[in-house]
Amino acid sequence: MKTNLLHIKNMVCPRCVEAVHNLLERAGYRPKAVTLGVAELDENTPADPEDLAPLLHAAGFELLRGRAEQLTEQIKSTLAEYLEHLRTARSPLTTSAFLTDRFAATYSHLSKVFSRTAHLTIEKYLIRLKIERVKEMLSYGELTLNQIADQMRYSSGQHLSNQFRQVTGYSVSEFRRLMLPERMSLDALA
């Protein structure tokens, strides 16, 4: 069965979008639009998912076939956008308000589907995402812990420090001192 809309796992950044676009073109398809997690093909070049899955897999991506998997990946992409919203909005929305605003579903439904598919709650995934962003900011050495905590909407530097240790097993000062290369790619978080 051929399709014009592909849902793809592990697309986490603009370079992933470009990589999938190029992969599709090299395979002889004409992508109409490629965004995080979704590739839309020209109506004249529909793809057979069985043929395309190995090509995507070889490049580190995975074709999503079930609706729950597709929704989970869309939630992950939206949570990455939410991090930017947290950082830049004057009065940021709550996670649940942000997600329900983006999806035509209740937060309860989104949470159940996400937990069942990702084997982790939305909240825990968001914490992992935030900690990876914190690691990035720490590695630059430009901001104090309190400045990072403010940007990431933690109640205090101490709250961030406690959560950092819980997730990574290291204190912030140990991480800075050792400059551990233990940052994870976003597609490996869950």
TrEMBL record:
Any idea which UniProt keywords this protein has? DNA-binding, Transcription, Transcription regulation
Q: Which residues form the signal peptide?
A: none
- State the superkingdom: Bacteria
Q: InterPro entries of this UniProt entry?
A: Homeodomain-like_sf (IPR009057), HTH_AraC (IPR018060)
Domain HTH araC/xylS-type intervals: 77-178
Would I find NADP among this entry's keywords?
A: no
Its name, as the record gives it, is Helix-turn-helix transcriptional regulator
Organism this protein belongs to: Hymenobacter negativus
> Which taxonomic lineage is given here?
Bacteria, Pseudomonadati, Bacteroidota, Cytophagia, Cytophagales
